[in-house]
Amino acid sequence: MKEYRPGTFDSRIIAYEKVHQITDDQINALVGAVGLKPNQKVLDGCAGYGSVTKWLLEKNAKEITSTCSFFVQDDSLVQIERAKENLKEHKDIEYSVEDIKSLPYKDSFFDIVVVKMGLHENQKEVQLKIAQEIFRVLKPGGRFIVWELFLNEKTQPIFQAFMHKKDELAGFDTLVTKRYFPRGDEIEGCLSGAGFINFKKELVFNPFLSTKARFDELISRELKESGKVEADEHLKKLASERLDTLNNFFRGLPDEQKQVIDFEDRGDTIIYYNIDKAIVSVEKPL
Ligand SMILES: C[S@@+](CC[C@H](N)C(=O)[O-])C[C@H]1O[C@@H](n2cnc3c(N)ncnc32)[C@H](O)[C@@H]1O
After folding, report:
1. 129 in ligand 1 pocket by Cβ < 6 Å?
2. How crowded is residue 172: how many other Cβ atoms within 10 Å of its Cβ?
3. Per-residue pLDDT tens over the stretch 249-262
4. Which CATH architecture has domain 16-156+172-210?
5. Most buried of the four, 22, 38, 115, 277, by CB within 10 Å?
6. Three-class SS of residue 19?
7. From the CB of 100, is ligand 1 less than 6 Å away?
8. With a threshold of 0.90, does the pTM exceed it?
9. What residue spans in the chain does CATH classification 3.40.50.150 cover?
10. Each residue's pLDDT tens digit, 183-234
11. Does residue 11's CB lie within 6 angstroms of at least one atom of ligand 1?
């Protein structure tokens, strides 16, 4: 995990706020769902560049956050380095590079675990293993907050195929094989299968998405491997070509699938909706 692993999250250097059109309402719903209390231990799992921890630190009162312990975990060293940079103004955060399905913490260690957009990075059977591992490290009465795709039978195959194509074009080889985007009922089943109770939908939302928002991502790997900070003309051209291919892939969908996602062709980008996401919470029984 310490060595650069091409085609993984070591090469997917993007800003989720931009790609996923994250709003203040969504952030506030997450912070509200966590409901941070004094002296809690909080794990930000599959943390990427640590935005969840940043929101929790900046949107809760200092009198509370200063008594809590924050743990930021991801299996990509590159992402953890990004998290350290993003959170450099906040001291006393514990960072770790490891797989979330086998955490180095003892049983009943955390009060809160948050995993935002991390479950779908893993195959379906691994998602259950992750939920079981989080169940293990949570205290009885502890809470698990999940921000995740919340698809249905119609949208799941469309979104899975779109992301598969995008990942293939971007050269994210391991993402093509590992990712499984769950339906809402599968998330609920996974969490209850791991032993959690009191499943609650804190917020279900349906962001406006566009293929063009993926422009930078389509050359993220090449940019990272070139060591450059900004894309040159050659890379921009490559990104445009890949975006065209992605748009054409979308144009080739059957009409019935286009209707499901309110497909709108704007020439250089395609706008689509109805790809639900949700923030849900569950509890480990006392
Ligand atoms: C889509 S990103 C989300 C990052 C962050 N939670 C956010 O929403 O801003 C998914 C992250 O999960 C990490 N990840 C995926 N599978 C993992 C696993 N099994 N163990 C630890 N981290 C994992 C990836 O390295 C990546 O940084």
Report:
1. no
2. 23
3. 999 999 999 999 99
4. 3-Layer(aba) Sandwich (3.40)
5. 115
6. helix
7. yes
8. yes
9. 16-156+172-210
10. 999 999 999 999 999 999 999 999 889 999 999 999 999 999 999 889 999 9
11. no
